[in-house]
Amino acid sequence: MRRIDVPPATWQPLGGVPCEKLAETRLELHWALQIVGAPPLAFLEHTPDFSHANLGWVPDDATFVTRRVGASQAIRVGLEVVDFRLVIRDDADAVVGALPLEGTTLDEGYGWMAEMMGQYGVGDVDATALHRPERDFPAHPVRTGAPFTGGDPQAREELARWYDNALLLLSGVAREHGNASPVRTWPHHFDMAILLTLEPAEDPERMRSVGVGMTPGDASYAEPYLYAAPWPVPTRSKPLSSLDGGGTWHTEGWVGPVLRCSRLVEAGSDPAAQAEQARAFLASAIPAAHALAGG
User: Are residues 133 and 254 part of one domain?
Assistant: First the structure.
């Protein structure tokens, strides 16, 4: 059985595709992942932090998977990144349904997903009722009816390596901090992350914390990057400490340490050196973000 959220044994070398060449493929994957994230929002019990909708990562075959949905026939919905297809996995983890996405429209993807929910006894739902992002989401032609192309296959493989490495890194951080949440991927922002709780509170919006994660790119940077984000968002009036591993401070819209793809791969593709640099960055970034959060 494939192991969900169990990190690979070793770091995967990055830089096979230039950082700036990943954006278009990343956007297609981001939109495709919204189809996967829709069934948990429709059928699982709501949690205040939306953790019912977050996703696991299967390094063995580069697949995002949901939590189990359905009762009589519990299934998981997934997106295979390298093969670029939607899948339905049964309780034994066998693929029992698949939809290749290349040449498929967003509407067709949602229609297929609604059909699968009925076929496997999860529930009857109209495709138009499945969640689609409206605000704070990157524009792309698939949103207005263009078919998925899949982008660059090599870029999909490179992005899969980023998620493998993020799982390896974040699992290590979680072991070092007893206050860490599980490593999960959040479909709306497409980031794999953990939350380090500094001060428990009933209201998540009031809870001091540091989010540590990797995003394959977003409105802040068009390339993948590692980050440590303190919450609540601090002001720039506090001094910003130095960072190791080529890290820099992001200060527009949110404040936190980042290590961009271009800084991580500029010294070469040696996996041991990249892993050491990434760990050095996080070792300095997490205390710096902790201090800004008032810890």
Answer: no
- 120, 144, 168 — which closes off a domain? 144
pLDDT at 295 over 60: no
The H or E element that residue 166 is part of is: helix 153-176
d(CA 194, CA 182) in angstroms, rounded, equals 6
10 in a domain, yes or no? no
pLDDT of 225 over the 60 cut? yes
* Structural domain of 193: 153-292
Q: Which residues contact 270 (CB under 8 A, 6 or more apart)?
A: 13
Largest CA distance in the chain: 57
Rounded to whole angstroms, the Cα distance separating 131 from 152 reads 27
Cβ-contact 75, 90 below 8 angstroms: yes
131 and 192 belong to one structural domain: no
- What is the domain count for the chain? 2
DSSP string for 114-157: HHHHHHTTS----GGGS----SS----GGGGTPPP----HHHHH
Cβ-based neighbour number of residue 10 at 10 Å: 12
Same-domain pairing of 108 and 160: no
- Residue 213 DSSP label: E
User: Is-above-0.85 flag for pTM?
Assistant: yes
Q: Residue 286: phi, psi to the nearest 5? A: -65, -50
| 110 CB-near residues (< 8 Å, 6+ apart) | 35, 38, 127, 128, 130, 132
What confidence tens digit (pLDDT) does each residue in 123-174 have?
A: 999 999 999 998 789 999 999 999 999 999 999 999 999 999 999 999 999 9
